[in-house]
Amino acid sequence: MKDFRLYTITGEEFHSGRSMLEVMEEAVKGGSDIIQLRDKFSSKKEVFEKAKKLREMTARYGAAFIVNDHIDVALAAGADGIHLGQDDLPLSEARKIVGEDMIIGISTHAIEEAREAERNGADYIGVGPVFATKSKVDVIDPVTTSYVKQVADEITIPFVAIGGIKLHNVDQVIDAGADRICAISEIVGSTDIQGTCQGFLDKLDAKRRIEK
Ligand SMILES: Cc1ncc(COP(=O)(O)OP(=O)(O)O)c(N)n1
Ligand SMILES: Cc1nc(C(=O)O)sc1CCOP(=O)(O)O
Ligand SMILES: [Mg+2]
Questions:
Q1: For 87-120, how does the pLDDT look when each residue is reduced to its tens digit (9 = 90+)?
Q2: pLDDT reading at 21 higher than 80
Q3: Ligand 1 centre from 210 Cα, in Å?
Q4: Which CATH architecture has domain 6-211?
Q5: Is the distance from CB of 6 to CB of 31 less than 8 angstroms?
Q6: From the alpha carbon of 137, which atom of ligand 1 is closest?
Q7: pTM value surpassing 0.90
Q8: What is the pLDDT of residues 129-138, one digit of tens each?
Q9: Of 136, 166, 203, 207, which is the active-site residue?
Q10: How far apart are CA 138 and CA 29, in angstroms?
Q11: Domain ranges in the chain?
């Protein structure tokens, strides 16, 4: 898959009166190079309608587009990939359905899950929740930056840190080894979405400059 740095997920409860498309377009304009449609409340038909709009918008900017949970919606909307959790369809079965070209991302919360996802051909993994988050209802306790460090030290496929990541604590995640970060509330709840994205990118870039 094409490399990415900043991953933004929809969270319509934080969009405060703005349309989902408007919010996500701001995120892409701000430099989010991958976005995910995550919608736990709408009907599948509604999720599909949203997916088609996000597919069209992301294609205009050259950003990757991922659908959470719904493989059929991802395929029907022409998304670049799907994101699956530990309780979703197993990766090997999902791969049979979507083929080799589609991106499959897998959530992981412990190093054994990260190893398994890598072994089974995940294109990237989510690593979290690093910090406490209110954006997910059935969330487990924070895995802390020590899990980020474990993954950075051992796993070779791309990983994205997620969960409670804000501009004020992202340095801890970057210091633990993350090159890519993912956020919902800090970005889509911001009154200056482009500025918030730029703030994250500046911090990620500063790390890359130091490593060169
Ligand atoms: C990039 C990324 N990482 C983790 C998740 C969480 O996925 P999952 O565990 O399936 O939980 P839900 O998002 O479905 O509630 C994600 N969506 N994206
Ligand atoms: C959807 C999701 N998955 C997580 C995981 O750890 O797998 S944490 C999370 C919520 C992230 O939202 P926020 O940036 O607002 O904390
Ligand atoms: Mg899921």
A1: 999 999 999 999 999 999 999 999 999 999 999 9
A2: yes
A3: 31
A4: Alpha-Beta Barrel (3.20)
A5: yes
A6: 15
A7: yes
A8: 999 999 999 8
A9: 136
A10: 31
A11: 6-211
